[in-house]
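Onboarding guide, step 5: your first structure request.
Type a short instruction followed by the sequence, for example:

Predict the 3D structure of this protein.
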Amino acid sequence: MTRSWILTLSCRDEPGLVTRFTRLIFEGGGNIREAQQFNARDTGRFFMRVVFETAGPADAAMRAALEEALNAFESRLELTWGLRPLGHRKRVLMMVSRLDHCLGDLLYRMRIGELPMDVVGIVSNHPKSALNLTTFGDIPYHHLPVTAATKPAQESAVRGIIEDSGAELVVLARYMQVLSGDFCDYLAGRCVNIHHSFLPGFKGARPYHQAFERGVKMIGATAHFVTRDLDEGPIIAQAVEAISHADSIEDLTRKGRNIEQRVLSTAVTALLEDRVFLNGDRTVVF
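The system replies with structure tokens like these:
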């Protein structure tokens, strides 16, 4: 009987890293099924994602040996790493306002088995009756109104829900409220937002240089990590939708909803599968 694992690595680049890390898996009795790596020359960082199998009875010993070996590299290589079973379903908290098309799409994809996640709660600044969805099932719904004066208390309540539910990822599925800087810091690297526009907008000289520095994937709706800089977090996924002179406002709205759903589900899938790595203000997406 075999078991599959996902190992993710990010560290300072130097020669021989692929051999070094794959040898650790081999010596632990692992059989590599899939491996991807990238050397970011401008930042001097190395990124790797490996899927491998082990024999069931040896799982505990293999994991302990691998963790010990990786810990030995942490300080010298500035290594960060993660190891989890391939079948692990991440716990996800959704946040939404009145526009529920992205939320509905993600819930549907979860229920048909397309997204390996468990939604542990839905937070909204509007009551459930304000949404068009009726397929919440037994997912807890938290109505937390917010104003400028109550934002600290409201965000504290959301933080409590995250910690009590064990949420590993927070998805802003058209949550139309600006998060405070402190809350953004608390969610760093584990909160994704969908923006209904082409991001970022490059102004002034050398726009292609700016685009490179920001890691643009495509021009279109944008899914990105949430940071203190509003709508300027590292980009995870983008897509484009064609329009013409014949499109009405209703056509644009419909196409906009479709592209937002596609882009957000693409980004969430990549995050659930541990395919997204932060590389400064950019991302590496395997």
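Each response can be followed by summary notes, for example: DSSP finds seven helices and 13 strands in the chain.
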